[in-house]
Amino acid sequence: MNLPNVITLSRIVMIPVFVVVFYLPMEWSYMVSAAIFALAGITDWLDGYLARKLNQSTPFGAFLDPVADKLMVAVALAVLIEGYAAVLLTIPATIIIGREIVISALREWMAEIGSRASVAVSYIGKIKTTAQIAAIVGLLAFPPGNFWAYVAIGLLYIAAALTLWSMFLYLSAAWGDLFPKAESRQGEV
């Protein structure tokens, strides 16, 4: 166990704390839940930075980091869907969650067949993640109906569009493995 892995694990530990704070019947729960999510976003960057800088990358960390990210985002979007109870927020949130499931399954399958590198994290994925974190922090910080909450919903739509674009890029990179040409399969009988 090293420092980057401890930081990654802290993101998972933050999830139940985040949920409890979000549902507290206090005025400050919006801002504090937003701060917890923002802290999780910072630790996402920090653990990767430290793993590279300290040369402490591990297979466990490589596995755990995307799991922690996806759990935190999915839980945050789930509580926001319930909290806002509006189709305006539900549409981009379900696109984002659905994409994460598709790409996780694709990466697992590509790793199984030895083509994991063709579905590596792309630059557009990093931009998508930044927009997504900013949108979720805004949605958590401001209650439904607040002007800034609508701005954050707009940002969530941008994140959802980038999500679809990055999914398209991943699927395009894997297309040849998903649908091998008929002539290459004829010799495999």
Topology:
Layout: H1 3-23, H2 29-53, H3 59-84, H4 87-112, H5 123-141, H6 147-178, H7 182-186
Helix pairs in contact: 1-2, 1-3, 2-3, 2-5, 3-4, 3-5, 4-6, 5-6
Summed up, what is this model?
With 189 residues, this protein is an all-alpha fold. It is built from 7 helices and no strands.
Q: What descriptors fit this protein?
A:
Four Helix Bundle (Hemerythrin (Met), subunit A); mainly alpha
Judging from the principal axes of the Cα atoms, what is the shape? globular
| CATH fold topology | Four Helix Bundle (Hemerythrin (Met), subunit A)
**Helical content class:** over 70%
Helix and strand composition category:
mainly alpha
Structure commentary:
The chain is mainly α and 189 residues long. It is globular. The chain contains seven helices and no strands. α3 crosses α5 and α5 runs antiparallel to α6. The chain has a single domain (3-176), classed as Four Helix Bundle (Hemerythrin (Met), subunit A) (Up-down Bundle), CATH 1.20.120. The model has no long low-confidence stretch (mean pLDDT 89). The longest helix is centred in the last third of the chain and has 32 residues, at 147-178. 81% of the residues lie in helices and 0% in strands. It has helices spanning 3-23, 29-53, 59-84, 87-112, 123-141, 147-178, 182-186.
